[in-house]
Amino acid sequence: MVDKSIENFECGHRACGGCGAATAVRMILKGAGEDVIVVSPTGCLEVFTTPYPETAWKVPWIHSLFENAAAVASGIEASLKRQGRSEKVLVIGGDGATVDIGMLCLSGAFERNHDITYICYDNEAYMNTGIQRSGATPFDASTSTSPAGSCSMGNKHAKKDVPAILAAHGSPYVATASLSYPTDLMKKVETAVNTPGATYIQVHAPCCTGWGFEGDQTVAVGKLAIETGLWVNYEMINGVVKKAKKVKRKPVEEYLSVQKRFRHLFKPKRNEEEIAKIQAIADANAAKFGIDI
Amino acid sequence: MKEILEGSHAVAEAVRLCRPQVVSAYPITPQTHIVEALASMVADCKLDAEYICVESEFSALSACIGASTAGSRTYSATTAQGLALMFEVCFNAAGMRLPIVMTIANRAMSAPLSIWNDQQDSISLRDSGWIQLYAEDNQEALDLHLLAYRVCEDHDILLPAFVCFDGFILSHTYEPVDMPAQEEVDAYLPAFNPYQRLDAKDPISFGMYATPDYYMEFRYENQRAMLRAKEAIVKYGTLFKEQFGRDYSGLIEGYELEDAEIALVAMGSICGTVKDAIDEMRKDGIKVGLLKIRCFRPFPDEEIAAALAHVKTVAILDKNVSLGSKGAVGLEIKDVLYGSSIAVYDYILGLGGRDIRKKDIRAITKLAEQGSGDMFYGLREELL
Amino acid sequence: MPLNVGCTARPGRGRDNKTGSWRVFYPIFTEETCSGCEICILLCPEGCIEKQGEKKYVPDLDYCKGCGLCAEECPGDAITMEKEEK
User: Fold this and answer.
1) Nearest to residue A122, comparing CAs of A252, A58, A183, A211?
2) For position A19, what pLDDT does the model report?
């Protein structure tokens, strides 16, 4: 049972007003329980929570480097095992640190099946350094290193499918979640933390500053991502997809048109070809996960 | 107990006696025999530790950071390319004040690729905040691990340490060593008592970021801890002597130095060759002595200045080169002797495993006497 | 005050930073239309909404950044955002 009264994240942190990551992390900590040690890589979360001597963390927490959170977590888990301690080891890190520079350590930790839970808050770019493209940036999104311009439509590459990669490593529990569905997110965190072995959750965390929408729309934008099929909430138990969230699908442009990072698809004029490509991605997701009601 | 052991196995046994709780291992020549020996010990229940086969050296030291902050004594070993891959992790561990001990089986840096010995690897990390100890022989190599843990885990120190021993020359050479018993080591090195740790009962945030208002003072604190480490090494080195009979209270050691007119300065296994060469040269009436540096970081500046004050000429044997400048040890010795009238010469030698023989030491001594110095020694002219 | 070894800190000082000063808008909670669902508490990125009684939810204005998520997501439209008087 998730204890929603747990509050292990302090006020006074320096996240943007309406920050999806902050919202998600509060929910994650409720799902994880009190007996937890958190590891964070460098990124928005680490920076807005720990400018010395102020810390927003009321649980034990460590930041080492940008790419080694999973390796640090492996070392902590080994040490706790040796000491016979019960704390759960939880990594909470951004997509840049996870899907790109952190892949080496992530793969190693999952291949060795350390008893850790790795949660990636996915705001789909290197937000802390000013909105640069990461392996999790969706197709055609404009970022500062994949900007839309007169001869570019933004990010040329598909989103890296890290849940599938980690399921292929033999992870017993891999899931995707969204801050827009908090009960589902907290339940998945609770499941992941209590499943022995290396477990993974990728949490969609819309970023008002980076995606270009008002801070009060964070939850609404997250809902649209799911309702258009561009983000699918699902669980994989021992590599098999179970329980993908079903939706009555909306056309992708309802999601794209409310974010500045996709504005180039609509202004100065609608780019039907590119919108169709993105619709195809959503359609493929729908077919793959069977989300259409 | 006296045994004849390969250097790596002597080190592995010393590490076993130190009772690490978490060992992270990644293979790289010439340290691999250490981690293999430790794996065997774990497999045979002779070492009660978590042994993590990590996916790279970068992860090896990162796992040590995790284990150390969670409250375990931890260990890893590496060399050259592996150490270079750990570059940022080394700075991170020292900045976080974690008492990690890591063996460096000194090896040359690629490119060109070389698995043979020189000291470029650990010397290139001299700015990182790690204590650096250099072993002359396998006995020192094993003893220095006990000393390192004792010094590092002192709550006034809390710094990580490299124990350096020359790859192949020591790591793969069989020498007689006196291996202490477990009870003796337990009496010298108590159980790990972390200064602070990750603990749900007393939560702390580790690895916060420091703005310009704080960063300098943190670095200064690291510097102060390094300087306190000098006294700690003397203190625990003296304790080592009382316990085991071998004296590690000196950051440096002199051999035939008291009345020397020429001093050779060196670190590591080369000191053994130098001592033999000195014995020969002394028979020929040359008043030459050795200043052996055992502790390179913190740099024993005052001790070196005092030990060399009376000599006329100093010849530094550098198994490394700061390309575009000179040998690292040479530059630091020159800094110490600045203002004196001592003639100081730096000789780059032995890079990439180039053999150094007694006659090379004699030749260098002669070059220094003749005032010919600051050079690469022993180059094959026909290749140039 | 001397530095903590290794750049560490225990919890507590985070609250020294009163982010309420960032605010342009602030939330007003209406008890009458509140259903007590507590979605506002769950969604607030600051975690600064406190339950002070039956259907009485109060934002801590020392920390509220005025993002408006609570107002936007309240199912009962029990929260409105007002501009701060400067």
Assistant:
1) A211
2) 97
